[in-house]
Amino acid sequence: MIFNWFKKKQKLENLPEFWRNYSKSFEESLPEDINANRFVVFDTETTGFDFEKDRILSIGAMTIMNNSIEVKHNLEIYLEQEMFNPETVKIHGIIQNEKFEKLSEIEALKKFLKYIGNSVLVAHHARFDIRMINKALARHKLPKLKNKVLDTAVLYKQTRISSNLINRDRSYSLDEIAEAYNIELTDRHTALGDAYITAIVFMKLLSRITKGKPVSFKKLYRF
User: Fold this and answer.
1) In 3D, which of 141, 142, 168, 77 has the Cα closest to residue 115?
2) Tens digit of pLDDT for each residue in 21-54?
3) How many CB atoms lie within 10 A of CB 113?
4) What is the average pLDDT value for the chain, to the nearest integer?
5) Where are the beta strands (DSSP E) in 34-67?
6) Are 123 and 177 in contact (CB under 8 A)?
């Protein structure tokens, strides 16, 4: 037991300072009260859907605290492009020689980890975005993300299963849920734009789940 603890500590000390700082943020437990938690809603735009071959082009993130979206406290990162897929440009619109600041993959990861800390991550079809980030981390010999994760696609299904207003076998897109909630699709298929739409969806889902009553984070996470 002591040997395993020492080995784990030694491994952590061998990792870069920015990762150690990120890891240390998890020494503090998450608040039980949902409103006291910091949620980071995020999205990635990528060159494609292959976890081994494709790369992240941009990351957009927004903070939710105290039942409010902190629009000004957002994160938008564009990454240097090592590969180019003209087919996916039709979706995200990011072309290879766009004239805005681009970061290397490792610098983008540093910035992202500093922004999220130990916050609860929220994304639509979160498995994809989380796995793309984890693959990027692995390329730099870094561990996987440590954050708790909530998926708005899963939460949307769960809020409707009890009333039979949903097809349990379908995977609902962000567009479909936004339409169901009358949310305007602003800057769709940009990382920050999609993060903002997802943040509004998440707020509406929280309202349906809590119904104005106190709900613990553990209950939300189990939900």
Assistant:
1) 77
2) 999 999 999 999 998 999 999 999 999 999 999 9
3) 21
4) 86
5) 39-46, 56-65
6) no
Structure tokens at 186: 């602003």
The residue range of the domain holding 17 is 2-23+31-222
Interatomic CA distance for residues 156 and 183, integer angstroms: 14
How far lies 138's CA from each of 6, 133, 153, in Å? 23, 9, 26
The dihedrals phi and psi of 33, each to the nearest 5 degrees, come to -75, 125
Give residue for tokens 């859907």. 49
pLDDT at 93 over 90: no
CB atoms within 10 A of CB 134: 15
Per DSSP, the residues of 118-164 read: TPEEEETTHHHHHHHHHHHHHHTT-----S-EEEHHHHHHHHHHTTT
Work out the burial of residue 61: count CB atoms within 10 Å of its CB; fewer than 13 is exposed, 13-18 middle, 19 or more buried: buried
Of 200, 205, 206, the C-alpha closest to 186 is 200
Output the six-digit token pair for 203.
């707020």
Chain mean position to CA 199:
10
The 3-state DSSP composition of the chain as helix, strand, coil percent (nearest 5) reads: 45, 20, 35
Q: What are phi and psi of 182, to 5 degrees?
A: 55, 45
Query: How many domains does the chain divide into?
Result: 1
Are 205 and 159 in contact by the 8 Å Cβ rule? The answer is yes
Query: The CATH number of the domain where 44 resides is what?
Result: 3.30.420.10
In 10 A of CB 78, how many CB atoms? 19
